[in-house]
Please model this.
Amino acid sequence: MAEQSDAETSQPQYARRGSKGTIDMLVQSRRIASDEYARAQRAERAYRARKNATIARNSLRETKTHFAEGFKHLGLGVKGLIAVVKGAPYILGERRDGWRKRREAKQRERAQQMRKKLDERLARENSEDEGSGKAPEEKEEEKEKI
Model:
């Protein structure tokens, strides 16, 4: 065995160089940095999720409020529409009364104008009768002839 140990010592030994832990430290620091980066990403995702969840909750709350008001207004609109439908005959009746009153006023005005024209014509005829000396019965006979 002594020969072997002499032989081993006589042959150059290619032993691994001492790294002094530089590579090990680099690998370890890379792993630590990778873990810290992954942890930071998780924390950032969690922060964004909380932030977006808060915004979404506020939006949901506002949307619920708007929809509640919308449905309330829709209900009021439907109630108003029903009231209008129920009251439509009364509105139409009131308008018909207004139209009838205007029509009757126009008819009275026309009748009054016709009466006035007739009175003027009769007054002219009476004045002509007095001037000509004919009796009203004779004038009627003349009108019948025409």
User: Anything to note?
Assistant: Helices lie at 2-10, 22-132, 136-145.
